[in-house]
């Protein structure tokens, strides 16, 4: 997982699109073109980093990705910068509500993952 993450942060948009397929992206585009925001949920079974990068490269719309900030600032910065490469906007989990309210009226995608053991 670590090697894939590091690789993904250096891979091109075309390479991420080749490695990760997103089915029916037109559904998301239709919603955002009508001014509607969408919520993207994914299970915690895949490489979340690649999914976010590929979605940003393929969908062409801003994706606010909920994440848990890391304790080590340099590692946290590395993750934020990598996740933002193709339009991702990492939002700390404790700021999500405020961020959504701040962007009210903007069509966006909000992405979060769910751990399989979460209730």
Strand content: 15-25%
> Termini separation (Å)?
25 Å
Overall tally of structural domains: 1
CATH class category label: Alpha Beta
Helix count from the secondary structure assignment: 6
> Which fold name corresponds to the CATH topology?
Rossmann fold
Helix content: 40-55%
Spatial strand order of the main sheet? 1-4-2-3
- As a whole number of angstroms, the C-alpha radius of gyration is 14 Å
What is the string of helix and strand elements? Answer: HHHEHEHEHE
Q: How is the biggest beta sheet arranged?
A: 4 strands, parallel
Shape: globular
β-strand number: 4
Mean pLDDT: 84
Give the low-confidence spans: none
Structural class: alpha/beta
The CATH architecture is 3-Layer(aba) Sandwich
Can you give a write-up of this model?
Strand 2 (63-67), helix 5 and strand 3 form a beta-alpha-beta unit. The protein has one domain: Rossmann fold (3-Layer(aba) Sandwich), CATH 3.40.50. Helix 2 (13-19) packs across helix 4 (48-59). Strands 1-4-2-3 form a four-stranded parallel β-sheet. Helix content is 45%, strand content 18%. The radius of gyration is 14 Å and the shape is globular. The longest helix is centred in the middle third of the chain and has 12 residues, at 48-59. It has six helices and four strands. It has helices at residues 2-8, 13-19, 25-33, 48-59, 73-83, 96-102; strands at residues 38-43, 63-67, 88-92, 109-114. By secondary structure, the protein is α/β, with parallel strands linked by helices.
